[in-house]
Amino acid sequence: MSLKGINAYRKGNLKQEIANADPHRLTLMLMQGALDRIAYAKGAMERKEIAAKGEFLSKATAILINLRDTLDLNVGGEVAQNMYALYDYMVERLTDAHVKNDLQILDEVTNLLSPIRDAWLQIPEAAKQEALEAQRQKRQAV
């Protein structure tokens, strides 16, 4: 099978996974996607592939902005506000890494995002189901 065929299969598989994912899974996929793009950008930076570096950092930044902008600051209170500020900081640092070609800044962002992703993985199934049910009830009330 050609590389083009493999990539098409992966895209189709990813679209199917997204279509079937609950909000918890989607958030996890976004976090992992950002971490992957940062790692790809780091590789491109090391190889001095400027266009690829910019593309990967742009995608990672877009993911972080999406994660930031989907926070419910009214419901999440101080925790959501702190997460918003942290995502904002990570976006700024990715811009700095891009401009300065600084691998250490990419490591910094990875080290900030990885524990969040790891904690997200540890959320008990009962808590995920409770949150999903609360979200369903909220939508029905509107």
Q: Which stretches are low in confidence, meaning pLDDT under 50 for 5 or more residues running? A: none
At the fold tier of CATH, the topology name is: Four Helix Bundle (Hemerythrin (Met), subunit A)
Q: What composes the largest sheet?
A: none
Overall outline: elongated
Gyration radius, rounded: 17 Å
End-to-end separation = 49 Å
Order of helices and strands: HHHHHH
Structural class assignment: mainly alpha
- How many distinct helices? 6
Helix content: over 70%
The CATH superfamily appears as Flagellar protein FliS
> Class in CATH?
Mainly Alpha
Strand content: under 5%
In total, the number of strands is: 0
The average pLDDT is: 87
Overall tally of domains: 1
Architecture, according to CATH?
A: Up-down Bundle
Question: Would you kindly provide a written description of the structure presented here, covering whatever features stand out?
Answer:
About 90% of the residues lie in helices and about 0% in strands. It has about 140 residues and is mainly alpha-helical. The chain has one domain (about 25-140): Four Helix Bundle (Hemerythrin (Met), subunit A) (Up-down Bundle). The longest helix has 28 residues, at about 75-100. The chain is elongated and about 50 Å long. It starts with a helix and ends with a helix. This is Flagellar secretion chaperone FliS. Keywords: Bacterial flagellum biogenesis, Cell projection, Chaperone, Cilium, Cytoplasm, Flagellum.
